[in-house]
Amino acid sequence: MAHPSLKSAFAERRFIVAPGIFDMISAKVADGMGFTSLYVTGFGTVASHLGVADAGIATYTDMVGRVSTFARGCKTPVIADADTGYGGLLNVRHTVMGYEAGGVTGIQLEDQEMPKKCGHTPGRKVIPAEEMCLKIKVAVEARRDPNFLIVARTDARTTLGLDEAIRRGRMFADAGADVVFIESPESEAEMQAIGRSIDKPLLANMVEGGRTPILPAARLAEIGYAIAIYPAVGFLSVAAALERAFSHLKQHGDSNGLPASESYGFGRICELMGFPEVWDFDKKWAQISPLAEEKR
């Protein structure tokens, strides 16, 4: 069931910072930190689940189970990437219904041609704006809970220019999108123009090393944005930490001497994954089980 708190945050103009989650460890860590929302990154989820590029290879079947697991395992509302809706209008309807049933609070749909490519990478092509508007209308009709939010993204900026991207953003808002996401503006001035031009909650995609400048939350709010997602910061940090740890292991032949800052701690990860509850369960039922009686 969609969390009403996310829709309320937009209505109350509380700026939202959403970290990217890509597996259940990243989801559990982020879930305990007090964020208003979490963002299921397509790039990170495809990379961690399939080990391939986010280039339209992952299917609805690959993704719906993953995003549903994230939503069920987190108390924080989850916005999840759903690429193009994995096909035409009927596919979009099926995708929206599946994501909503899985407990997601917001779904992101984009106007790329299939197979899609990750934002901030070259070679992205978009479908006609009118076709995307139909997808948005189908998505709005398919949802059952009004707290389930439709995030509509356009990748038109990179190939067709800023004016076309803004035009599409306005069309998407008119078609019923709750949040408009114009991907890959290339300067703060472009982001200001977007903020002036579209009267809907706007999403900023903050990708380290991407095409868009990373601005402070206060500045994003000032120029008209409502939410910033950080899809890559988690998996980039994890990959770097793994490389350092594995390099130490390869060089020294053991994990002795790893800096304490490089380890989360076995006790902490046990707690994060819910082992104390498991131990309490085992303790309770071991006291009254027939096997326990036989051992006395």
UniProtKB/TrEMBL annotation:
What SUPFAM superfamilies does the database record attribute to this sequence?
Phosphoenolpyruvate/pyruvate domain
> Has keyword Magnesium?
no
Alphabetized, the UniProt keywords read:
Lyase
- Matches recorded under CDD domains: ICL_PEPM
Work out whether the entry's keyword set contains Lyase.
Answer: yes
Q: State the Gene3D superfamilies in the record.
A: Phosphoenolpyruvate-binding domains (3.20.20.60)
Q: What are the recorded GO MF terms, alphabetically?
A: lyase activity
Q: Name the source's superkingdom.
A: Bacteria
Q: Which Pfam families match?
A: PEP_mutase
Q: What is this protein called?
A: Isocitrate lyase/PEP mutase family protein
